[in-house]
Amino acid sequence: MTRISDDPPEITLTVPAKIATPSKLAEPTAPSLTETPTLPLVSPLPDAPTVPPFHMPTATPEILTGELVFSSWREDVNKDGHIDGYDGAQLYILNIVSGELKQLTDAGYYDSSPVWSPDGESVAFISDRGGNDDLYVIDIGSGELTRLTDSSERESSPTWSPDGTRIVFQRTWTAKHGEWESGLFVLTMSDGIIEQLTNQPNNDSAPAWSPQGQYIAFTREGPVIEEDRTLYGSMVYLKKLDTGEEIRITEGIYEPGNTRLTEPKWPSCTENDYLSLEQVPGEHSPATIFLFKLDWESSPPRLSKLVGINEVLGAPDSYVWADCINWLISPRLGPSGYSASLAALRLDTRFPRAQYIDDLTKQNSPILSLDNGWSLTGDVYSESWPDWKP
Length: 390
Description:
Blueprint: E1 2-4, E2 12-13, H1 17-20, E3 42-44, E4 67-73, E5 82-84, E6 90-95, E7 101-103, E8 111-116, E9 122-127, E10 134-139, E11 145-147, E12 154-160, E13 166-174, E14 180-188, E15 194-196, E16 203-209, E17 215-221, E18 224-226, E19 229-231, E20 234-240, E21 246-248, E22 260-265, E23 274-280, E24 288-295, E25 302-310, E26 320-322, E27 327-333, E28 340-346, E29 367-369, E30 374-375, E31 382-389
């Protein structure tokens, strides 16, 4: 592991008090359920480099608190008159209550996929600052930056173990036949040793460590050969870490429409009871996030659909659960069509009764829209990869 001594600059910007006053806020208006357009590559420069208005989510019984770390395009680094992916992306921390915004990493690189450590003292992320997409960790207090990987492959999708001693991540490389291949690897923080978690020939991605630490959920791309049949599409597996057993919990391609379930995430407050998956295509939306209840009394564990959320941008921009399963935070396309702001949607956790139908796409559930959520970062810049801590 390489330590980088240069401290990144910190920029603190505070939202005016009148914006953060709950009594000043209007209720969000209900949008039309139209299909979300594709996010364009280039967004025009704002008139002034100010922090977009922050809207306190005060219209619900509970207030969302805590801090968000996220990746954002906010600087015209190459001075071409546009803010876009060619300028790179930096990491920022937003205090949700005060609206205070702190820049965590410096400009000139592409920093993405930030995730809080379990103790909230550091953030792991992916950056190309070393010439390749490698894994780094930054100490929030000191700004000390440590490079964790240095390889010719590309790292992505880091996730901490619940005790903070290890990080699982995806590694992608070019195979002999010229196509991309990927697998999952685990890095031990104390000694920097990296071990391969899953093996070829399958492409594995999007690892997520379970709250109690026994499992890592991930997506596997077919074809997968199982005894008397071959499965195609994207399948979600649970890797049992003490035995190495791999448990498939989705079917791959569902009909009609070649529907797939991918990108597993565990809400951090639960005892492995809930798992969310991204359905592509979604319900009247390019992607829908569905929260499932897991029934561990069956083998393999069964999933019962509880609620779906539309109008999220989906992978790879990702989403995060906050305050257990009370809030979902995700990028959504702004009204201008040039930006992707972060929004928070409050969920009613009085879910329907469990329903165990083998075809998960045919299970019924309430469908909510992120368009009815509260804006956290406005409609000026493009944000992605949010992660929340209390």
